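Just scan this pair:

***
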Amino acid sequence: MDYEAVIGLEIHAQLLTASKLFCGCSARFGDPPNQNTCPVCLGMPGVLPVLNRKAVEFALRMAIALHCRTNPFCRFARKNYFYPDLPKGYQISQYELPLAEGGYIDIEVDQTKKRIGITRVHLEEDAGKLLHEGLSESDSKSYIDFNRCGIPLIEIVSEPEIRTSEEAYEYLTQLKTMLQYLEICSGNMEEGSLRCDANISIRPAGSSEFMTKTELKNMNTFRGVQRALEFEMKRQAEVVEKGGAIERETRLWDASQQVTITMRGKEEEHDYRYFPEPDLVPLVIEEKWVEEVARSLPELPTAKRDRFIREYEIPKYDADILTQSTPLADYYEQCVGYCHNPKAASNWIMVEVLRKLKEDNIDIEQCPIIPRALAELISLIDKGTISGKIAKEVFEEMYRSQKSASEIVQQKGLIQITDEEEIRRAVSQVVESNPKQLEQYRRGQTKVFGFFVGQVMKATQGKANPQLVNKILKEILDSR
């Protein structure tokens, strides 16, 4: 039987506020364990939480970007469960009255567009972090770092409208890019600032019935999410085919084994015993505040991509890559502003710049070649001062030395040969030196034309203008 997956994703994104959600402790990542704590985030008796306004503003930015309906009246609730990294024995979250509901995000997979509904966006505090060491039970130890306790999170819950692992991957990619454009989350899954839980079930293709679902956790890369979903779809199908029943449970993704394994039985909502947080008054979101936040939003990824296609007349593929982050998009636009060649700038950034950044594992902000310098290199090609081949050599030197393209060209004598007579002499000499290949060309083996071009470029140390070489070589070969 053919099955289809029913997938819903729950995304937790740490907000880039300076302090925590309900106290003044630093929310900075990477500090020594248990340094950023106080009686409030440690849940000491008698303390009271105070809501961080900036966290609410950041949550509103995401809710508006996702086209959600902002609730004018919302409140916090206590989500009760017991775990070593949760010092209060409950988590302050939102339940029946969340910040925002009913939005959507558009994705595209295999040139097919699809709209995924957003159930809700709500605020909550993060728990601490458990650190484990030791391979066996006899020597294993666990430590608790409470620095993460109380860091503000937004939880973004999708409708169960995702059908494939590819759609899930694209959905995650779009959300991460949006969070980074809004400058409210770093999006770093390895640091835990962006985390994903997946709910997945299968059903006969074409059915509208919802079946028993499992929850997947411990996925710390987008590819990990994709592979975990693919494995779980296959596992559930095999269970059903053998006459078994899918159990409602939480499963962990084991990246080393590429399998999901049972963690525990899945909690139901009543297991958490939600009730209104008595120490926080209801949160009133005035329409005026929502409008102010909406006006402050930057140009979002989809809008920027569409503008790049329209304004710079570059392919959608290019625009998708160039708008992956705000700094990369800004780098491209600055480069185009200097060289006025959008497609050439796109090619150089996508192929050469991103290749070097990947090799060095750095971001575009740390690129040794600034936009204006790259634009100068592109302009030298457009003017015919250097060839595209020479330009790659110049680019490598620019990246190493941070010298300008013009300086490198002058110092190394790389100016392109555009004198037709000089090129004609070089072509004639190459043709006369290779009678065997000339005879092959005369017999109709035109593929040797490329051989002659290569020999001319070699003879001129790559400085000859390629267009003139092709033109003159064809004239001489055909005349003979």
Observations:
- The mean pLDDT is 92.
- Residues 222-241 form the longest helix (20 residues).
- Residues 299-412 form one domain.
